[in-house]
Design goal:
single chain; 399 residues; 3-stranded antiparallel sheet; TIM Barrel; globular; 9-stranded mixed sheet; alpha/beta; Arc Repressor Mutant, subunit A
Length: 399
Amino acid sequence: MTDAAVSAASTRRALSVYVHFPWCLAKCPYCDFFSLAAQRDAIPHGAYADAMLRELERRAADVGPHELASVFFGGGTPSLWEPKELGRVLAAISGAFGGKDVEVTAECNPSSFDERRAEELLRVGVNRVSLGVQGLERERLAFLGRLHDADGALGALRTALGAGFRRVSADLIFGVAGESPDVARREALTIAELGPTHVSAYALTIEPGTRFGALAKANKLPLLEEDLVARSFEAVATALEGAGFEHYEISNFARGGHYAEHNLAIWRGGTYLGLGTGAWGTVRRAGGLLRYRNAPAPERYLSATATAPLWEISELVSDAEHVDAATALSERLMLGLRLAEGVDLARAAAETGAPGWTRERERAAERLVRSGRLVRDGARLRIPESAWLFADAVVRELM
């Protein structure tokens, strides 16, 4: 390698890639991600991979050389995708961007994950799986629209752990009507005892545009009282920390430093390429930071022409906007303050080009520090774990 090539390689910026697979066996009533219910044999497995390879070729040529940091197959239910097609896409991504020891995650549901699927995913290069366990009570799983039961969830988790994946994560939803903090605690411990390297624990949120959102608007959805949701959050966190997990982000826990590298890069302000119908991406181009969304319409995505604009609204792209400096800094605060490590405001300001310590932000920070809801260590700001329940309010005040 020439000196010039070595220099170019050493200065390549890191880039993550998010791949959206929109199909599920059933649409969960709380889910506000773009997803479609379909049986496996009705999914255009090969055609979807072909369309994604066309998109990747053009986007990779446009953004230029980058060091691949992570790949995340999300959905929808990527474990429904034929592994050989998922593997074709992964191989093309790896070929387009250089990278070493890249974390490759696939979201999986217990209802579409078994020993054969685990072996196939490992064979094509997936080294981390994130399993949607969500709960271990039959009634609550049914309420959440899940197709598996507790035995199926724990069986899938054991299969993933025994298959040889480098990292295994389990998702858990707490704060559901009828659930006590003690039940949330016991479920977290049951999952932890099996040995996953990572757990994501989310309070049930009611989003507009979902079935739960419509029911809540009509006052027909049973909800858990806010104080019980807060107590469940504390119970889950205490249980997982006692089981050896580091509470490194408001909703995420890791053992032995096995963080979700893809998400961590985004929380720290990294850029990412979005591929697939409905996928969001945020990339740095000559004109600055640009955010786009591919049209959430599989038919349009599959038939998009090679001349459809990539960075402006077209048959392929439904949203596209340049992110100004002030917005970029606000987003760095919003995401970075979810992390236990917090955010270096001076660095974030320098990287986004927005002023960091404005007079209003100084005053807000002083108030928050006095109230115990913020810690200021030089240029670094962080929310102490004892105040994570108030994180949204803290961020709003700082912004």
